[in-house]
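Marked as duplicate of an earlier ticket. Keeping the data here for the record.
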Amino acid sequence: MTQKRNRAILVGFKKGLMHRFRWPEPLEIAPKTVGETLGDLMASNSWPHAADWAAKATGYCMTIIGGSENKASFDLAMEKGRRHWYAQGINPTGCADNAPDASFGPIESRGERMTQRAIRN
């Protein structure tokens, strides 16, 4: 999943060795959006609204927490990231077993009031 993970790096050297350090060249690869990453999976069960959903899911999602041996499940619902997940058309409070099928309607964009209510509940 395309995630936004801000990082800080501290580099320290003994006196007289700093001249040997060179920052690596930045990668010139643009990360894929959520829609680009998941669009084909959302369409895998013939959901007719998959292309529209993918076109609107143009951001990157907050970090997914968990999935390790210590935390058997993952968590998309950290308080800080919920608003961002909802904006991408993803319900952060659950996990579907399958992609939507042809009987599933379009995912509507949530307004600010709806998002706030979903976060509190």
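See parent ticket for discussion. Residues 46 and 67 are 28 Å apart (CA to CA).
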